[in-house]
Request: fold
Amino acid sequence: MAYVQGSAYELPFEDRSFDASLLLLALHEHTEAERTRMLHEAMRVARDVVLLADYEAPLHTRIHPAWQVVRFVEHIAGPEHRAGFLDFVRQGSVTGLLERHQLSAVAEERSHFGTMHLAAVSVARHPDEQSV
Reply:
């Protein structure tokens, strides 16, 4: 087994190198430009599907204990991390990211008491893979 060190902004792999790529709790702590680059790279190296899993605000966030825990953890992670989280949530989290990039999930699920959004995006269904 080989280990490869690289950046999610510029993956050191050929196009369509993997059946799937994953972005798991990797988006919320970055800027929109960084998120876009990471998503583009994940789409580029995947042949079939990109799996996204990240925070998504539930309905009634003020009275949602699990969401309050998430917000607290993100708050103590530091100002830069917190700023990325707040921006990600303000822009609609995973749902907003998919909409902004005109992507449709082939499967979706909410987990962790409704605070996590998991989405599977088919690479083949994206009309213009290079425009992500």
